[in-house]
User: What shape does this take?
Amino acid sequence: MIFGDRSTGIVVTGATGKQGAFHIPLMNAYARQVGGRGVVAGVTPGKQGQEVNGVPVYDSIKDALREHDIGAGIIFVPAGAAGDSIMEAADSRIPLIVAITEHIPVHDTLRAIAYARIRGSRVVGPNCPGILSPGEIKLGIMPVHLALRGEVGVISRSGTLTYEVVHELTRAGIGQSTIVGIGGDPVIGQTFVDVLAQFEEDPLTRAVVVIGEVGGSLEEEGAASTELPLVAYVAGKTAPPEKRMGHAGAIVEGGSGDARSKIENLQAMGIAVASRPGEIPELIQGL
Assistant: This one.
């Protein structure tokens, strides 16, 4: 597993908030289903001693680490404080930090991700659905019933498109090794390049689906960095220039980053690009 497995203990920051309290039992229901540890601790300052669905809550990650072995952290903290929460997790040397929160100020994200790198922590997100390794671990908010254990990795900038593509793969009997939502903000932690490098080291992954969208050049950079067989899909063919489309990072600026040029660049690298999500299973089978 490239981002943890069923033995990984998870800490949730923002455990007593609406989102944290909603998703902790969902993550732990999946952990019980696969025989994993799941969320072992929650963090909300001033709420130490409380519980969320049987999970003990602490004032800080350092307090939680005194009682639990933790390998991953998930951030459900409101945007104004989420950057500090990422840095708190990094300061405690949590190896993997999944930031679900959206609308974090860009300067906060820049500072938090830079600090996490210095401390040796990997950040996935922000503004992402998290990670799912079917049969092993759920880190975030992905719907587990759509997924099937298998050998195809999935990396995506879009949460809802991730679910659609995973559903199409599963319906075709094509299982997934790990599904990673890297987030749709202009500044993110793990990029396509980073996750593809980890998939290359994963003996369970034989091919990867890259789900991109307009804005930037992350998809092309990722494709150029790997020898793994890839299938790509790029959303936003009709996106007008200079207008943000859903995600803060999904904006075509200065004549670059539009879907058509991305598709042409990927095809020039010899990568099969689906015109719609329903074509992806057939392209995977043809690799």
